[in-house]
Amino acid sequence: MATKKFMYVNRKAPYGTVYALESLEVVLIAAAFEQDVSLAFIDDGVYQIAKGQNTDGIGMKNFSATYNALGDYEINKLYVEKESLEERGLTEDDLMPIMWEDEDDDWAEKPSIRIVSRAEMANVLADQDVHYSF
Amino acid sequence: MALVVNGVEVATDEEGYLEDLSSWTPEIATAMAAEEDVELSDEHWDIINFLREYYEEYQIAPAVRVLTKAVGKRLGKDKGNSKYLYSLFPYGPGKQACKYAGLPKPTGCV
Questions:
Q1: Domain spanning B2-100 has what CATH number?
Q2: Mean pLDDT of chain B
Q3: Cross-chain CB nearest to A65 (options B59, B73, B108)
């Protein structure tokens, strides 16, 4: 079976709607099919991978730690739109340092997050075979 | 469904998974295994403890593929394969080991 490029586009804040959690679950399930998977974080979607999330006050499960497991599922292309961060007063330092371990390089830890401009994001999206929008 | 451990009733769902993750004790794992005629060895506990640590860190039960790779890395290549894991957990390392560990069924596992 030929490998396809799958892109999961995340545009919504992590809590308040179920989109972020559903997207993450679909990504983890679909990882079993061993396709070329990327994630994009745009607009309020950038908050999904923000550091220091605390859901105590809203009675929802804090699933932010699960993004750190993506590397184990061989998902290591997390594109984050620079303008979306800037519009919210955020920088890369406000995001979780999500890493993956390269088995072919003695398990060296490498960053999964790639900050790209809006124009670059358009190219990344155009280069995919399948898009899922959450 | 309920399991009785040390005279205390423990709530489980229709497939035998623990309802309340935080109520897990090693005795519960032993009792769940006993119901399936399994006696837990140190090798079983290695996997159960690994799964609990994984859940604690990432808030998910790992897929079997991920479990296999991680066990190979942590416990040695001779253990990081499905043959070894299935020899310990014949009903499937994901389903059966996660159940004993008090975790939900792995995401995507049917």
A1: 1.10.10.370
A2: 88
A3: B59
